[in-house]
Amino acid sequence: MPKKILTVGFQLATENAETAEFRDKTSLLDWDVILFRPDASSYLYNEYKPSEYLGKTALNDRNSFGLKEACAHWRRELQEAVSNGKTVIVHLSKPTEVYVATGTKEHSGTGRNRQTTRHVEIFSNFRALPIIEDWTATHGSAMTLRPEYREQLSSYWSKFADKSVYEVVFAEGTKGACITTKHGNRAVGLAFSSKSSEGSLLFLPDLDFGPDEFFEERDDEMCFTDAARQFAGSYLSEVLSIDQAYRQSSAKTSEPQWAKEETFSLTTEKGLREKLLRAEEAVEKAQRKKEVIQSQLVEAGQLRDLLFETGRPLEAAILKALELMGFDAEQYEDGTSEFDAVFSSPEGRLLGEAEGRDSKPIAIGKLRQLTMNIHEDLEREEVQAPAKGILFGNGFRLIAPHEREPSFTDKCVSSAVSMSIGLVATCDLFEVARYLSENSDKRYAELCRTTLVKKTGIIRFPNRPIKAESAILGNPQRMSAKRAATAEPE
């Protein structure tokens, strides 16, 4: 039966291996061989105008916690995979150090003078790797395979030594050194075998899995070349040879059932089993706590759906934003009519329709739907006057807000003005809702409600009060008084 192979952090031009992204929460227990590369670039380069501190990127809170969670996930999964008899090969790509949020903040001042201190700490993508701790970033290509590892690695090394580069060296005396620098004898590759299973864990120098010669453009799409497929076939052949060699050298007889009886149990085992049980209970408790916090985090981030969602998620986020403004807001459905949002306040009663478009503006068709809804609403016995219509549009929703064209077509805008209907871009609504979710500002909420009730056409919300904040970076104990040179509002 063919081995099931998974690559994480890079892709091979073959159907014989599946691929997972570093951001994924994939379990590694479904695979026989795992090929891992700690490439955390998806967290480092997806921010608009990322901050810097002491010459390094400073991630925002979302990417900070995402990166830390991903590293913790992979560190745990890699350890568990080896314990369960899997072969794990890690290619040591270039380590990247960034500043991440610690989750602690300090506040000083009040009102307009209120300032927020945001603390960060240094963090590396190598936190995703188990076992290794003491390494130094560097770069080189002159390496040699240690004689005692020739049986397992000589074939691989003969083919890929010239293509390999090391990005880190390990401290002198590091156990498991299988590949060293040609001069200085510093470890750049490590090999470990599990004591309880056939699993093995190898840290090998990096390879370039995506050179230009591996790609070509066909019909406006990037495709793999023959060179990429040849490389993938040769590489996987050597990987499977390593897997076989380590399994043969570390073959361990499965423990018979009778050997697990209490009669043969050792005193030290009993104590360790009790510790393991307590540790598992602590893990379970922590997991339950984590699930609760994750649920709270999803709910807390619901307003962000105003930026990129459509359908029901967008409608739910709009209702939440309207409630923050002080409206009584809900969806309406009676079997005959269905309205995305009916919302009211002392300033007036309104009816809203929501629409999201991937890469286009909101057109006049949705405006016609809104006018029909207003008439249907007026036919209800309990409604005495037509509601003010608001069309919430999330045009170009898959494009970053600062790069979008206007959310509504010119025809939609001119028609809305003539029909006394308001047009609200949901990315503008997001900024209002975010401010109100963080500030108890009843005066500003009232101004926003009045604006929605009285204005027609494209609605521009009142300017938000200036909030004095600064992002302070650094270790809480060591840098509590320092301000980042490029402090930004949170």
Describe the structure.
- The chain is α/β, with parallel strands linked by helices.
- The chain folds into three domains: 5-252, no CATH class; 259-300; 305-458, Trna Endonuclease, Chain: A, domain 1 (3-Layer(aba) Sandwich), CATH 3.40.1350.10.
- Helices cover 34% and strands 25% of the residues.
- The protein contains eleven helices and 22 strands.
- Strands 2-1-3-6-14-13-12-10 form an eight-stranded mixed β-sheet, sandwiched between helices. The chain has a six-stranded mixed β-sheet with strand order 17-18-19-20-21-22, with helices on both faces.
- A hairpin with a 2-residue loop joins strand 15 and strand 16 (221-224).
- It is elongated, with a radius of gyration of 29 Å.
- The two termini are 54 Å apart.
- Residues 468-490 have low confidence and may be disordered.
Gyration radius, to the nearest Å? 29 Å
Question: Can you give the mean pLDDT?
Answer: 87
Overall outline: elongated
Q: Which band does the percent of strand residues land in? A: 15-25%
What is the helical fraction, as a range of percent? 25-40%
- Main beta sheet: 8 strands, mixed
Give the distance, in angstroms, between the N- and C-terminal Cα atoms. 54 Å
Whole-number total of structural domains: 3
Low-confidence blocks of residues: 468-490
The counted number of beta strands is 22
What oligomeric state is this? Answer: single chain
SS-based structural class? alpha/beta
* Widest sheet, order of strands: 2-1-3-6-14-13-12-10
Number of helices: 11
Keywords: Coiled coil
Coiled coil: 269-303
